[in-house]
Amino acid sequence: MAKVPTRKPKKKVCVFCKEKISYVDYKDTNLLRKFISDRGKIRARRVTGNCTQHQRDVATAVKNSREMALLPYTSAAR
Amino acid sequence: MRRYELMVLLDPDVEERTVAPSLEQYLGVVRNDGGTVEKVDIWGRRRLAYEIGKKAEGIYAIVDLVAEPAAVKELDRQLNLNETVLRTKLIRPETR
User: How far is B43 from chain A (nearest CA, A)?
Assistant: First the structure.
């Protein structure tokens, strides 16, 4: 008996690959904010749909950005 | 020669007008060593995502430059010695 998938897997395409962006800028906080939660945590790849390389680039950019106080390390949202 | 991008985060108590001249003074290190400063972009006062040394604001400045690694290292060292510099970040944009 074949297992029926309850949820159909929606294949997400990495936004950076789609837009052909090769360099994720740590200064672009508006872009990076899309990849952090409202508590300031970096969103997982399964949430963002980024490819391995770009997820890594995003994570590094967020961390660089945090060091310069452009993005929060934590933001206690209640 | 390598291309660098330097971000400097300055104390908000510094007059914004004096930022450019004092930054120029530091960039002399690069120029004297044969490097070139391509762009100085002063973002101005911005709210920090978290407090640094009890300060809620900071003045951001971005400098694009091409220089020898040693010159840039010295520039970064001198900036960090300055009390009005809260943070610096030196990045090589295309090698990532």
Answer: 11
- Chain B positions touching A57 (Cβ under 8 A) are 96
Which residue of chain A has the CA closest to B95? A23
**Total length of chain B:** 96
pTM score, whole prediction = 0.83
For residues B75 and B23, give the distance between their C-alpha atoms in angstroms, rounded to a whole number. Answer: 10
Which among B49, B87, B89 has the least Cβ separation from residue A72?
B49
Which whole number is the average pLDDT over A43-63?
92
CA A26/CA A63 separation, integer angstroms:
8
pLDDT in tens, B13-64: 888 888 888 898 899 888 888 889 998 999 989 999 999 989 999 999 999 9
For B7, name the nearest residue in chain A, comparing CA atoms only: A68
A50-75 CB burial, b ≥16 within 10 A, e <16: bbeebbebbbebbebbbbbbbbbeee
Length of chain A in terms of residues written: 78
Q: ipTM value of the model?
A: 0.83
